[in-house]
Amino acid sequence: MKDFKVLLINCNTMLDTLVTAGIGILSACLKQEGIEVKLFDTTFYRTAERTGDEARAYALQVKPTNFEDLGIIPEKGDVIEEFSRTVADFKPDLIGLSCIEVTWPLGLKLLNAVRHTGIPTIVGGAYATFGADIVIRQPAVDMVCVGEGEQALTELCRKLRKGDDIAHIKNIWVKKDGKLFKNPIRPGMPMKELPFQDWELYDKRRFWKPMGGKISVTGTFEMNRGCPYTCTFCINSGFHNLYEGVGGYYREQEIPRLIDEMLEKKEAYDLAFVYLVAESFLTTNHSRIEEFGRLYPQVGLPFWVEARPESISKDKVAMLREIGCEGISVGVESGNEDLRRNKLGRNLTNERIIQAFDLLADSNIRVSANNIIGFPTETREMIFDTIELDRQINVKGVMVSFFSPYRGCTLREVCELEGYLKEEDIAGDYRLGPSMRMPQISPDELLGLHRTFPLYVKFPKSEWKTIRLAEQNTTAGNAVYKELAQRYMKEFM
Q: Which of 204, 251, 288, 331 is the most buried if burial means most Cβ atoms within 10 Å?
């Protein structure tokens, strides 16, 4: 069988170093077929003015960290030129671009730079899945993977290697002979059948991840795929709809299989921290939680998870504390019950949210509340409902993101219908700024509320007039913000 080489592109946001499970699994699947795989990673190139972590540190959500202390700085070379050189040197038989909505414009530039080579290209990931009709229009794109790629990409490479027809591979849209073949979705692959991630293709710098004010060697492990819930602001609602007719999207990894992979990677990569990929870590059956609590001490590393308030109970918190959970992020999203229930698909009361944080209060686990501002129809007053709820739960970590209407989430359609953005518009990084213009609240006001959100939560109401001044991006407003931010960091971080 002839040699076959695949160049995967991880089109990543700048210095977001946490490894993604998806690319490592794709590489492992291809290598099982005897295919040579190389990764071109944009993570360490200067592709933005500031990183997401820098934006969060500026907005008082995380402790500042400095990659330069580890000798990690953006590469001086031009990312397009370096990519073109990699293609020329490696001479792949297929180029596979993995991107999210935010990085699609950069990914397209990369593909356009090597279009003249005639090497077949395929684009995958969440944006390709829900924006396939937009992506496939590009002359530099030959194929789009809609949905999961492990089986589809492997089948594609197998057929290309043999010279077989590729027009009818499930999950893949193919341009061929002036026609477009839109193939149907196949059922999701059982997670226990997935190979362990291939981390050999990653630059070792990718494992250094800021967490809780420290930078640690961190491993990412996929505990679940998808989410049992269908919140309208999340693209999991899109995956739920996409896979509804083929058995559903949400799946769980078997705990012993998960532990085995962690143990292997811990030894091979000297891991110091673990991030578990699970949209709601505690939303599962009781026996599975018990099994995780029983087996995880073999791994024995601090870890961080995300959870929904309604999944938090006294016994689960005790288990997490006992086995070394260092951090947990809990989704508040909005403190306005009407918005949360009727627009966001989150059917729970403020009282239940408060109860969840009360259960975590004495756990010694680092707890943060995840909030979002800038939803369609959300007003300044509704954002202050969220601030008031955060004041009641009195959590140490106050996180706030901008709502970004990524393709795939149900609310995207609402935003387009209301004229807040166009079908082809790219929603921006949820850490950096708002993506829409809405009549009830301006982008500038959202930016001001974003940076002062933790101040409103933690400082007494007698100082709210001063904080209001700090919302303004003016010389005076920025001076006030700088003074208040220094106080906040000293008192609360």
A: 331
